[in-house]
Amino acid sequence: MGIRLQKIDIPKIAIINASEPVPENGPPLSQATQFYLNLKGTGKSKTFKQAAIRNSGYLINLLGDRSIGEYSTADAGKLRTWLLDKELSIASIRRVFGTIRSIINLTISEYGLSCNNGFSRIYMPDETRVKSRKSIPVPDILKVQSICREMDDDLRWLIGLVSDTGARLAEIAGLAMSDIKLEAPLPYIQIKPHSWRPLKTKSSSRMVPLIGAALWSAKRIKSSPDSVFAFPRYSNEERCNANSASAALNKWLKPYVPEQCVIHSFRHSLRDRLRAVECPSSL
44 lies in which domain range? Predict the structure, then answer.
């Protein structure tokens, strides 16, 4: 998703008081967000609530906690520019706008408001206009993997697994010990949803074979069975903090990989490595 905005203060969510009249332009965005979560959040994952609070928080921090009808299309454009300047991908910005648009639409509909949604029609540049992440060249991958074996700690095990599986960072950081299957004829990891770490899509559930640095990492993890989580530094019963892992790993990787390459670049690299050997797309 590009970088996550981790250093902004997300305002506390206020609750709409049903006994108070709703202004013509609707309640403040913070209250509308809580109203949205009360109606649509039941049975949803924690990430649904976190995304709603985070995404509306971007707008509140930039332009203030206004009544929902006071945000104009020009204001939506200001948020788009701000997020682009923070180097979020177009896909991530679209998700932010989708959340805000849904919050405002639901509040307008449920309260019978006549105000407009300034986020209903906003132009988004094509994804091709945004720099794509680069792949890490194979010599650099091998160099990083060699250093990981020398340092031999949980952060380097995490890199080892990502580098030779092509899995998303959150998928690896959120593994349970039981997801690592070293006893199988061909060792593999079982990527499946957990209460602390859902998957991006239903099709993301899969078995991924372990080879090279990934197999080394898996063996090192299983040799230290102190937790039910493969990476207890980043996962617990409540959540998987992949953002924290990403920040730490990208900082460490920076001297060893080309400019603009990040931990997610290993995923692109594996795709290129598979294409180079003409691996069937069905695999």
Answer: 29-111
Domain match, 212 and 163 both: yes
Q: What is the pLDDT of residue 226?
A: 84
Digit-coded pLDDT (tens) for 42-66: 888 888 899 999 999 999 999 999 9
Tokens coding 45: 């994952």
Q: 219 and 93 share a domain?
A: no
Contacts of 83 (CB under 8 A, 6+ apart): 58, 92, 93, 96
Q: Report how many domains make up the chain.
A: 2
108 in helix, strand or coil? helix
Taking the alpha carbons of 121, 125, 128, 133 in that order, is the dihedral positive or negative? negative
Closest C-alpha among 29, 123, 36, 8 to residue 76 = 123
251 and 154 in one domain?
Answer: yes
Residues 6+ apart with CB under 8 A from 150: none
CA–CA separation, 204 and 193 (whole Å): 9
What is d(CA 262, CA 247) in angstroms, rounded to the nearest whole number?
A: 10
Rg (CA), the chain: 22
Contact between 142 and 210 (Cβ < 8 Å): no
Residue with tokens 């079982």: 190
Residues 149 and 91 reside in one and the same domain = no
Q: Which pTM value belongs to this model?
A: 0.62
C-alpha 235/C-alpha 228 separation (Å) is: 10
Dist CA 174 CA 183 (whole Å): 21
SS3 label, residue 263: coil
- Size of the chain in residues: 283
Whether residues 179 and 93 fall in one domain: no
Residues of the chain with pLDDT below 70 are 1-21, 127-133, 282-283
Terminal Cα distance for the chain, rounded: 24
